[in-house]
C-alpha cells in the first residue's frame, strides 16, 4: 500500500438514494437472499444425503450451490445492514476484504462452470469412458483449481484497485465495494489501472467462455451422430440446466466487467450488479430443480424426512 493512501474508511450509498426506495428494495433483496440460501442449502443437503446423486455432475452442482451461497453472503447482508440500519460506513480494510472475497467467488464460479461444461462434454462425447475419465480425484482437482484460480485472479484484481492512492472523497456510489466505483474515488489518474483490469478481466471471462463454447461444440458434434429419435433430446436435457446457468452468468457478468470504464455509469452499475450478484445466484437452484427429475426426487425425499 502506498504512503499516499489517506482514506481510512468508505461510505456505501446503498441500493438507492431515496429512503422509501431503499427500504422497499432492501426488503425485496432480503426475501431473495433468504430464498437463495434455502434453495442452495436444500441442493447441498439433497446431493449429500442421496447416494443416487453421488456422481460428478451433482458433485459440481453441490460446489456451485456452495459458491452461490457464499457469493450472495459476501455482499447482501452488509448492504442490508447499511440500508436498513443506516450504518453505511465500511473501513478501508473491510472494503479490501469484501472485494477480494467477492472476486474470488465470482471468478471461481466462472472456472467451475467451465469444469461442469467439460463434465457434460465427456458424458456425451465419451460415454463409455466417462466414469474412468471423470474420476473422483479429477473432479476434486478441477474444483480445487477453480478455487485457486479465482483466488489468484482476485489478488491481482484487488491489488490493481487498492494500490491507487485515495485522498478523498470516500463515498462509494454502490451497495458493496466493487472496483469500478472505487477507482473513481482515486486522487490520481487511474486510467492505466482501469485498462489493465479491463484487459485481464476480459481475458479471464472470454477464455473461460471460449472453453465452455468448445465443450458445447463437442457436445453438438456428438449429438449429431446419434441416430435414435430420443437420443439427442435425452442428451440435450442433461445440459439444459447448465446452459441456462452459464447464459445467466456470462450475460450479466459481461455487462458488469466487459463494459469500457469510460462508459461506466453508477446507476447502471448498481442495476447490473443486482442481477449478477443477487438474482443470478438465486435463480440457479430454481433452474436445476425445475429441469432435473433426479433433483425433484431427492428434494421430495428430503422434504419427507424433515417432517
Q: Care to describe what's here?
A:
- With 307 residues, the chain is mainly alpha-helical.
- It has one domain: Rhopdopsin 7-helix transmembrane proteins (Up-down Bundle).
- Helices cover 75% and strands 3% of the residues.
- The chain has a 3-stranded mixed β-sheet.
- Helix 3 (92-125) runs antiparallel to helix 9.
- The longest helix is centred in the middle third of the chain and has 34 residues, at 92-125.
- It is globular.
- Mean pLDDT is 83; it is low at 1-5.
List keywords for this structure.
disordered N terminus; 3% strand; globular; Rhopdopsin 7-helix transmembrane proteins; single chain; 75% helix; 11 helices; 307 residues; mainly alpha; 3-stranded mixed β-sheet
CATH superfamily: Rhodopsin 7-helix transmembrane proteins
Text of the CATH class: Mainly Alpha
Helix content: over 70%
- The CATH topology is given as Rhopdopsin 7-helix transmembrane proteins
Q: Which structural class matches the secondary elements?
A: mainly alpha
Overall strand count: 3
Topology:
Elements (H helix, E strand, L loop, with lengths): L8 E4 L6 H31 L6 H30 L3 E3 H34 L4 H4 L2 H27 L8 E2 L6 H5 L7 H34 L6 H7 L2 H18 L8 H25 L2 H14 L1
In short:
The chain is 75% helix and 3% strand. The N terminus is likely disordered.
